[in-house]
Amino acid sequence: MSDARGGGDRRRGPRQKSRTAPAERSRRGSPARRTAHAVLQAVGEGAYANLELPKALRRARLDDRDAAFATELTYGTLRMQGFYDAVITEAAGRATSRLDGGVLDVLRMGAHQVLAMRVPDHAAADQAVALARSVAGPGAAGLVNAVMRRISESSVAEWRERVVPVEPLAERLSIEHSHPVWIVKALRQALIGHGVATSETADNAVAELLAAHNVPAPVSLVARPGLAEVDELLGAGAHVGRWSPFAAELDGGDPGAIAAVRDGRAAVQDEGSQLLALALAAAPVSGRGDGATEQWLDLCAGPGGKAGLLAAEALAQGADLVANEISDHRAELVRQTLRPALTAAQTAGRHLEVRTGDGREFGVDEPERYDRVLVDAPCTGLGALRRRPEARWRRQPSDLVGLGPLQRGLLVAAIEATRPGGVVAYATCSPHLSETTFVVRDVLKKRDDVEQIEARDLLAHVATGGLTDLGDGPHAQMWPHIHGTDGMFLAVLRKRA
Ligand SMILES: C[S@@+](CC[C@H](N)C(=O)[O-])C[C@H]1O[C@@H](n2cnc3c(N)ncnc32)[C@H](O)[C@@H]1O
């Protein structure tokens, strides 16, 4: 068993020597646990786990096994925080709001080790006590010891029985699957609104969706066409992807160890996200007829995932692409992502440009210029909760209030910037009705120069498998529990010629 699990396991073969002496580990908690705790504390202050954890792992110089333990401990604790807080409230006999923040994170981590990671009770408790002592002083040790003992007395199934209310449904699912109640309700409505559940089947459907958010997402890779081959990724240990012709999936290991990923010819990208870019590139456009080069626009490109695939497709089809992003920092990320494509475009005499600016200005600044426009709108990200474990706790219903006008403004600008016969793809990584179908409906209501075309057919056309269950149409919604992708929404609009 790993050092991080509180002991040594020779069955797992030779391992690097820990840099921390055993006495130190039992006094302050193991390095893996201290690392996870530091990340949880930073996340509590606003940091992003996916950015903070790699830095913390590097700083702690953990070996592979302890790094994997710290990663599972951090992500698993963040995901199941809602359930663990209910358990801790019961076990401590007091609300979690009455516990010191550092101690609460120690207890959440302890609950995760005992209830989900099969760490022996005594090891989890000893380590929790040591960690609590080091972060909050000796006074915390007694409480943590008592709470850990109580948590260990019951299995996870028994804890579910005790802390999950039978009714109302949203509260039940909220505790059982560890999501805020407002997200449970919004996702249930979205499943019905997108036509993949009825009011009779929605309870089961939303439970499946919430459960899917608690399973780590697969590491999907894209081999950017013209720059890398899927075979190159397969040769590096990945297996064939499920939907995208350019996808491969890694079962484990560091994607950065693959040369094509290091060079930016391939990248980590959800397959749903790949399909959206491919659907826009494949959508029929009409009316140009002058033999002129097609002009493509990615209006909200940062950090550049879809732009990377669009740029490769633009090069393959002999089109030009502008990738725009409002934030300087994120525009720089787009530049880095597009570096190999920028070189290839220069060689091919194609125009590929990264711009920094407000996408809402394109309609006025460049009316009717573009043939294909992607609006991958800023959104709540409720479709990507399995990748961003803390996002469910950080997002608020009030976020939708600010995003709504921005999403509508960007879609209007995209339509204005599209020439007659051209197409606009409106996408979000959220299935929330307020940022998907309602946005499209509101914008279409006020215009007669644009029609919605079948996004489901386009996605099915570019996908390698039989892609179904995308909803009532004409827009399409992908789901983690149905398609194994992030919850991506796509509506495709054609400007009337
Ligand atoms: C969902 S992300 C785009 C993800 C990107 N397409 C990808 O695949 O990597 C939305 C982006 O829109 C940017 N954004 C927000 N407001 C904007 C605006 N008014 N104009 C242009 N970009 C904006 C955000 O900074 C963010 O990078």
TrEMBL record:
Residues 1-11 have a biased composition (Basic and acidic residues). CDD domains: AdoMet_MTases. PROSITE patterns: SAM_MT_RSMB_NOP (PS51686). Residues 1-35 are annotated as: Disordered. InterPro entries: MeTrfase_RsmB-F_NOP2_cat, MeTrfase_RsmB-F_NOP2_dom, NusB-like_sf, NusB_RsmB_TIM44, RCMT, SAM-dependent_MTases_sf. The active site is at C429. S-adenosyl-L-methionine binds at C300, A301, G302, P303, G304, G305, K306, E325, D358, D376. It holds the Pfam family NusB. Residues 182-496 form the SAM-dependent MTase RsmB/NOP-type domain. Keywords: Methyltransferase, RNA-binding, S-adenosyl-L-methionine, Transferase. Gene3D superfamilies: NusB-like, Vaccinia Virus protein VP39. Belongs to the class I-like SAM-binding methyltransferase superfamily. RsmB/NOP family. PANTHER family: NOP2 YEAST -RELATED NOL1/NOP2/FMU SUN DOMAIN-CONTAINING, RIBOSOMAL RNA SMALL SUBUNIT METHYLTRANSFERASE B-RELATED. This is Transcription antitermination factor NusB. It comes from Janibacter alittae.
